[in-house]
Design brief:
Strand content: under 5%
Shape: globular
Order of helices and strands: HHHHHHHHHHHH
Number of strands: 0
Number of domains: 1
Distance between the termini: 24 Å
């Protein structure tokens, strides 16, 4: 089940990359989150009502504040940066770099909660930074092979610099790393995770993103779409949202069944599934040097994750 969850998130990344050929990044963020929130309600609420999993509906005012802070950082900042990075960069680069979130979680936990940094965590940080440096150095030497899905599409062809893609990916990882610390504080105040926290966090993300989407003057689509292209874009958005919700549910179930350490370690393999998916479905090719940089980066993540087991 854990590897299914990892593959699920890898598939979400590939779908997100594909849908960015049709829809601008901020609307993609909003629309995928809307679908994910609805799907989460449909899946998680019945599980709690029927007592088919350990999550109930507990919530406190303190937890509300922590989840609100998590939602603002994750959905407004981290995912927005993620979609812009994914539009401009390769899945094989953005995936490993954005997967550094466990390292940022360890750092934020040390700063905010006072958790000590283990030796393996520090080693993982060092190794991951080496991987980031290698990717930053070599990324600009390789062209982006993924062509826009639509003839005449102009927005997806605008490529950011290698430094920008790396910076956006690291902002993504930092935001995703901050969220779990806030969620842990929320769980402490309620005595554990709850379905209410999950649904509230995503629903609040929808409410925070709605004004941003409405205030945009840029078009929703990257180019005028024909009817079958609109249907394809909608299918990709719905697929990404449903898979995102499915992954969230699996993640919480896995933590209850096999613990957070093994869950996080296996989920950390998701960039591998994303890279394989990008090669098969997006025709991306990752050169030897970028593949080495990605491998070094992921090794750092695995080292840091192992530290939580000691």
């Amino acid at each position: 089940m854990a590897f299914v969850a990892a593959a699920c998130w890898g598939a979400v990344v590939v779908l997100n990359k594909r849908v960015l050929d049709y829809v601008s990044p901020i609307p993609v963020n909003f629309l995928v989150l809307v679908v994910s929130t609805v799907s989460l309600v449909v899946i998680a609420v019945p599980l709690s009502l029927a007592h088919l999993w350990p999550l109930g509906f507990a919530m406190t005012w303190a937890a509300t504040g922590y989840i609100a802070a998590s939602a603002a950082v994750i959905w407004l900042i981290a995912f927005t940066a993620y979609y812009y990075a994914l539009r401009s960069g390769k899945v094989g680069v953005v995936g490993p770099l954005s997967s550094l979130d466990p390292l940022f979680t360890a750092v934020f936990a040390a700063v905010i909660v006072g958790t000590a940094l283990a030796g393996l965590t520090i080693a993982g940080l060092v190794v991951a930074l080496v991987g980031v440096a290698l990717i930053s150095r070599w990324m600009g030497d390789e062209p982006e092979p993924h062509a826009p899905a639509l003839e005449g599409a102009t927005e997806p062809t605008l490529r950011a610099s290698a430094a920008t893609v790396v910076a956006l990916s690291l902002i993504t990882a930092a935001g995703w790393g901050f969220g779990p610390v806030m969620i842990e504080l929320a769980e402490r105040s309620t005595g554990g995770a709850s379905t209410t926290m999950m649904v509230f966090g995503e629903a609040l993300g929808v409410l925070l993103l709605a004004p941003v989407v409405l205030a945009r003057r840029a078009p929703l689509f990257t180019v005028a779409l024909r009817e079958h292209e609109r249907r394809r874009a909608v299918a990709l958005l719905v697929g990404a949202g449903v898979l995102n919700a499915f992954f969230s549910v699996l993640f919480y179930v896995l933590i209850a069944e096999i613990g957070p350490v093994l869950t996080t370690l296996i989920i950390a393999t998701s960039p591998i599934f994303a890279i394989l998916g990008s090669i098969v479905f997006l025709r991306e090719r990752l050169g030897r040097r970028l593949a080495l940089g990605a491998a070094v980066t992921l090794t750092g993540v695995f080292l840091a994750t192992l530290a939580h087991g000691h």
